[in-house]
């Protein structure tokens, strides 16, 4: 094809954006290679050249999202572990500060679509699990750092904290897009601040 | 039709069970009136007599689940608000003690399917919101009771507690069926016990 590595990268990036738009517009149940091609400025053949099936394409899309998210983690700032943890919670709950290209709530709907297929699709589960483990490891590292620096209690279990924060944020994002109320994420953010302060922080009194 | 009220109730209950089995087996994307009829011992005409569309049927299914869940709440026991709250968390996370007819994780997958359609479907959002509000009100009442009895802190916001618990449980159930790990619900249960103890209980020391 005579394409350079950069060209391939650009084409794949364009296909990822087309996939995102098609998924937002039609939902998983009505997503086809054609509806993805309709959002793409080259032919369907170009998509098939890069991805054999819709499933391959969606697994690549999940991987692309994970990489984008990992890059955006670099933009998360905070002098202390607590500040970094709070910035991380905000990035997961409301979208990373420099995400730019994706609307956070549209993306949440698209991910909910893929997630609802995961019980039937081992490849989706595998990629969603990889995304989950990568983000969990980042939260665990922040909590371990906080324990080592004495900002967090010695007796908290970093994995337990990470699982709790991630499940709560995941649940809030799912509710936010599937219920007729738009205050769930804000209430959860306030509640998690209180939980982190009371459960995690070493300066909160403890009876142990 | 000469059907008594009881007959109608029995038929509708049988249709609800057929809907559940079809949803578990085929997923939302492949669910049709025919796949539901295949799980039902009467004709498709009987289903159409009761429900005009697949959407009507699924809204009725959500309503049926809510009623079943409300009935199972009666089986939740606990002498104190804390015991009732913990029993309620367990019922939401692992299924109510007397649910009998539905497998909790199959039901979670079926609900995830319906939830993933909700962003595109106002009727699903309306019924999911009704389910959510009903269960939230129950949690709020337990927390208010605990504050009044002095078991929970005076300064916790019952709605905030309810939203946090429900989003966390929702997130855990979604992860449990869509990731390649089966320990999320157990870890969340342990973490929520710690959170309730540290954040909610009045006998935990407070700095206010």
From TrEMBL, chains A, B:
<dbReference type="Pfam" id="PF13977">
    <property type="entry name" value="TetR_C_6"/>
</dbReference>
<dbReference type="Pfam" id="PF00440">
    <property type="entry name" value="TetR_N"/>
</dbReference>
<keyword id="KW-0805">Transcription regulation</keyword>
<protein>
    <submittedName>
        <fullName>TetR/AcrR family transcriptional regulator</fullName>
    </submittedName>
</protein>
<keyword id="KW-0238">DNA-binding</keyword>
<keyword id="KW-0678">Repressor</keyword>
<dbReference type="InterPro" id="IPR001647">
    <property type="entry name" value="HTH_TetR"/>
</dbReference>
<dbReference type="GO" id="GO:0003700">
    <property type="term" value="F:DNA-binding transcription factor activity"/>
</dbReference>
<dbReference type="InterPro" id="IPR009057">
    <property type="entry name" value="Homeodomain-like_sf"/>
</dbReference>
<feature type="DNA-binding region" description="H-T-H motif">
    <location>
        <begin position="32"/>
        <end position="51"/>
    </location>
</feature>
<dbReference type="InterPro" id="IPR039538">
    <property type="entry name" value="BetI_C"/>
</dbReference>
<keyword id="KW-0804">Transcription</keyword>
<dbReference type="InterPro" id="IPR036271">
    <property type="entry name" value="Tet_transcr_reg_TetR-rel_C_sf"/>
</dbReference>
<feature type="domain" description="HTH tetR-type">
    <location>
        <begin position="9"/>
        <end position="69"/>
    </location>
</feature>
<dbReference type="InterPro" id="IPR050109">
    <property type="entry name" value="HTH-type_TetR-like_transc_reg"/>
</dbReference>
<dbReference type="GO" id="GO:0000976">
    <property type="term" value="F:transcription cis-regulatory region binding"/>
</dbReference>
């Amino acid at each position: 094809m005579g394409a350079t590595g950069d060209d391939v990268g650009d084409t794949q990036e364009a296909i990822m954006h087309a996939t995102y738009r098609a998924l937002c517009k039609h939902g998983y149940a009505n997503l086809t290679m054609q509806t993805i091609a309709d959002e793409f400025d080259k032919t369907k053949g170009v998509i098939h050249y890069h991805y054999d099936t819709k499933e391959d394409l969606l697994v690549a899309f999940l991987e692309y999202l994970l990489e984008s998210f990992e890059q955006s983690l670099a933009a998360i700032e905070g002098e202390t572990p607590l500040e970094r943890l709070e910035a991380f919670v905000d990035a997961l709950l409301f979208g990373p500060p420099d995400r730019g290209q994706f609307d956070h709530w549209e993306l949440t709907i698209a991910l909910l679509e893929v997630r609802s297929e995961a019980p039937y699709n081992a490849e989706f589960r595998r990629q969603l699990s990889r995304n989950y483990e990568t983000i969990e490891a980042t939260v665990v590292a922040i909590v371990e750092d906080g324990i080592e620096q004495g900002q967090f209690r010695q007796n908290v279990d970093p994995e337990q904290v990470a699982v709790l924060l991630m499940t709560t944020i995941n649940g809030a994002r799912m509710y936010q897009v599937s219920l007729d109320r738009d205050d769930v994420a804000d209430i959860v953010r306030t509640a998690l601040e209180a939980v982190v302060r009371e459960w995690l922080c070493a300066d909160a009194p403890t009876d142990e």
